[in-house]
Amino acid sequence: MSSDALEIIQNLEEPLREAVKKATSDADRQKIEQQLQSLSDLDLAITQDDFTSEVAKLQAISDTLREIISELQGQIDNLFLDQLAQTGRDNGLA
Amino acid sequence: MFLIAAGFVLNACATGGIAEFEAYKTAFDKAQTTSGSIFDQLAIQERWLFLRVNKKDLNSVAFDPNLARYYTDSVDPPGTAALRASLDTIKIYNDILYGLETGQTAEALAGKISALESSLIAGIKDTSSVISGLTKAEPHVAAALPAIDAAFQVLLPFVQEVLKLRSREYFRAFLVKAHPTVIALLQELRESTRYIFPVLTAAIRNSDTALRAGLSAADTDKINTYRKLLADWVILIDATTNALERAKLAAEAPPTVVGTITGLTGVAVEMDAVAQSAKKHLAELATK
């Protein structure tokens, strides 16, 4: 689950933030900040991948519904044509 | 007496599911209104997320036309566009069923038939006058036209009634047929909130300040408002799903009047409360 992965990232970030505060040299601070940045990049990549996968699922179901709508519209058109033919027959025009 | 009873039975058959479908349609419209505001927010955050994740490709010499929807803010980025399209598809489906259910489609079809009949009669008259002018042939065709037209005008209300009955049969058949797909789509939209929420909050939790110092009180407040807004939307989707279940059951079986009214009133009261709540949370987001 994505939320699990994002939670793990959040849990990893918290001690790193504490470590930034306690860093005694610029080099240490930069190293920890880079780790935080990597975790952030990972967070964003997971967020985007999950969202894209979910959208694909929605699109597949939407496509199925669109097919049903096309079928329905076809049947309505047939209803019109059937009735038109019947009207023509009733009037002796066909 | 038998005829009156038969009339009630026929009326019940003809109207089964209509009140329930209208309640469902109202519920869906409320959910879609709230969705529109959420998607406006989502479009901004989806674009930000994509550009941030792909920032290495966004140098000063590269332009990928396939990413146009991400570059410009004049249209929705692809994910948001797909979500909006999903709801629009349900809306189109609802509107078609509504047209069948209310008789609007039948009236439109009868109108088309009437227009075609008029143009046919006019066409025959024109042809007949040309022919008679040239050859004096077929005078009986022209003479019969008023009678044909009059017969059609007498038949038109019956045509319309037949179309109405047929269109209500279609309404019930397609309500039942499409039910699993529409329910699946509504449930997937509900499920999508799990993945929409991190997109909405990505910029907040990954800002430079939040990354180094953690979330501020204002950040947490804004994230909580997004959570409430999505929660309102979930409740509206749930109410819509329940209303569609009722409509489907009613279309399959004659409804009991008391059960229908009681159920629909309860749904309407809850939907109004949640729709108001969503408006409040959107207003809060606008000021944060």
Question: What percent of residues of chain A adopt helix (DSSP H or I)?
Answer: over 70%
Q: Name the assembly state.
A: heterodimer
The overall strand count of chain B is 0
Strand content of chain B: under 5%
Low-confidence spans of chain B: 1-14
Structural description of this entry:
- The complex is a heterodimer of chains A (94) and B (288).
- Chain A has 94 residues and is an all-alpha fold.
- Chain A contains 2 helices and no strands.
- Chain B contains 9 helices and no strands.
- Chain B has helices spanning 2-15, 18-53, 68-71, 78-102, 104-135, 139-205, 208-213, 217-252, 257-287.
- The longest helix of chain B has 67 residues, at 139-205.
- Chain B starts with a helix and ends with a helix.
- The chains are: A mainly alpha (94), B mainly alpha (288).
- Chains A and B meet through helix 1 and helix 2 of A and helix 2, helix 4, helix 5, helix 6 and helix 7 of B.
Give me some keywords for this one:
heterodimer; A: 94 residues; mainly alpha; 91% helix; B: mainly alpha; 0% strand; elongated
Summarize the structure.
The complex is a heterodimer of chains A (94) and B (288). With 94 residues, chain A is an all-alpha fold. In chain A, 91% of the residues lie in helices and 0% in strands.
Architecture blueprint of SSEs:
The complex is a heterodimer of chains A (94) and B (288).
Chain A (H helix, E strand, L loop, with lengths): L1 H21 L3 H65 L4
Helix pairs in contact in A: 1-2
Chain B lengths: L1 H14 L2 H36 L14 H4 L6 H25 L1 H32 L3 H67 L2 H6 L3 H36 L4 H31 L1
Helix pairs in contact in B: 2-4, 2-6, 2-8, 2-9, 4-6, 5-6, 6-8, 8-9
